[in-house]
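2.7 Reproducibility. Because tokenized structures are sensitive to small changes in the input, we list the exact sequence used for UTP--glucose-1-phosphate uridylyltransferase, including any N-terminal residues retained from the expression construct. No trimming or masking was applied before prediction.
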Amino acid sequence: MTQSRTRISKAVIPAAGLGTRFLPATKATPKEMLPVVDKPAIQYVVEEAVTAGLSDVLMITGRNKRPLEDHFDRNYELEETLTRKGDDTRLARVQESSDLATMHYVRQGDPRGLGHAVLCAAPHVGDQPFAVLLGDDLIDARDPLLSRMVEVQEQHGGSVIALMEVDPAQIHLYGCAAVKPTVDESVVQVTGLVEKPDPADAPSNYAVIGRYVLDASVFDVLRRTEPGRGGEIQLTDALQALASDPDLGGPVHGVIFKGRRYDTGDRGDYLRAIVRLACEREDLGPDFRDWLRSYVTEEM
Ligand code: G1P
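Resulting structure tokens (single pass, no recycling of outputs):
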């Protein structure tokens, strides 16, 4: 078992997807830039990485993703205008995203799947364990998951995935894990993985959600991974290889997540995330909740 000695510091965020479910909003705007209340979805994800201690962030981008780089960079013109107006609150909000993390970018070129996107991170990551955060999954900041996964990786070595129980009828939308219990009831050993199985063939109702802490041996496995489901190189297939042969790069464990997760890649869930987070905001919440209450009682 390969035990990590250096604290994990690098996060990889694949962000090359086309966002076709949100057309036409995503025709000229990356889906990661769609606002959740008043922050682009991707900023929540970078904040989550930083909160878990991962302040070196590599984004895997593609064509038409320039706004992502601009968002995490300085905007001197805007900063100067706000400074001149003495609008310190907005100035701080503008600077927040550029001060957040050390950002790096690499372009995926050919969109050959999530596994291929992660492989694009190999030169930057080197041989240390690293995290992968999928931008479509928002994990509520009050339900920390990634920091727990980092702890589990430091304890067991190998790789750690995040699992959530879903309705068996929904399992075809996710990677699915076969698991064995460990002494810790929130951690399981993963014995097998299958990408988006038919419900009849699913080994469990444990769905893989978009947070991973991976041993760097996953890169070698990905180089050998043939295209799988949808003709794409699947990260799930590489993790299946690791789970079935721990000699390749340590075991695969799963952290069972029971907190709040929003799939902002789905329009319904995206709307639910906005309503929920807006209701809970100190500045917007009180008015918005009043309006929502009367809207629901009077109009629905
Ligand atoms: C990806 C992964 C899948 C995982 C899901 C979580 O699928 O391939 O294993 O369950 O993210 O959101 P996607 O939703 O990108 O098709």
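Residues 279 and 289 are 6 Å apart (CA to CA).
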